[in-house]
Amino acid sequence: MRTIHRVLCSALLLGATSTVSTAQIKSFTLEEMVQTADQAIYGQIIGSRVFRVDSPVDGEGLYFTTITIQGRTLADGRAMTVDVTFRGGFLSETDGVFNSEAPAAQDVKPGRKVVAFYRWTDDIGGGVGTNALMAAHGGLYRTVEGPRGPAVLGRGEGFAITTNRLVGQLESAVKLLSATKKR
């Protein structure tokens, strides 16, 4: 009986780990992020809105959040205002959907200063074409004011910005990487 129990548990564990291992989140170096993104912006979130579209496949509601960022591009310092969208959000307390890959709510509040990497996508779901946030929450970084100027908060291994650095330093790195970008 013990042998059957061990074999059954081992089979279940093997099945569970093989299922989990097929789902992977892409990690990016800064170079990979710059090469893949259309643009990176440093600025302030000046607006946020959630919208719903019906899925053409099953009619279920798909929820998206769009944040409007006003600032400057990191590649060339141009002033810009851009809408960036990600999956998930709530129209009301009961009408919406949570997405574990979305940025944290406190990271996308209007007034927050951020660095965001984004790329145009013809269809992020439900036929919605938009500037999509790169790597879900991995494409958005909080910034803070410091004695030497604004700094972007690194997110650790596997994220494009692994350690805290001054926004000016990040801007220099992005400019250099953008100059060698494959078109």
What does this structure look like?
- By secondary structure, this protein is of the alpha+beta class.
- The protein has a single domain (about 25-180), classed as OB fold (Dihydrolipoamide Acetyltransferase, E2P) (Beta Barrel).
- The chain contains three helices and ten strands.
- The protein has helices spanning about 1-20, 30-35, 165-180, and strands spanning about 40-55, 60-75, 80-85, 90, 95, 115-120, 130-135, 140-145, 150, 165.
- The radius of gyration is 20 Å and the shape is globular.
- It starts with a helix and ends with a helix.
Write a compact overview of the structure shown.
The protein has 183 residues and is of the alpha+beta class.
Keywords:
183 residues; 37% strand; alpha+beta; disordered N terminus; OB fold (Dihydrolipoamide Acetyltransferase, E2P); single chain
| Relative helix content | 10-25%
> Can you tell me the CATH topology?
OB fold (Dihydrolipoamide Acetyltransferase, E2P)
Question: Could you give the distance between the termini?
Answer: 63 Å
Q: What's the total helix number? A: 3
Largest sheet: 8 strands, antiparallel
SSE string, helix = H, strand = E? HHEEEEEEEEEEH
Q: C-alpha Rg, in Å? A: 20 Å
What class would the helix/strand composition place it in?
Answer: alpha+beta
Task: Outline the secondary-structure elements.
Blueprint: H1 2-22, H2 30-36, E1 39-54, E2 61-73, E3 79-87, E4 89-90, E5 96-97, E6 113-121, E7 130-133, E8 140-146, E9 149-152, E10 165-166, H3 167-179
Antiparallel strand pairs: 1-2, 1-6, 2-3, 4-5, 6-7, 6-8, 8-9, 9-10
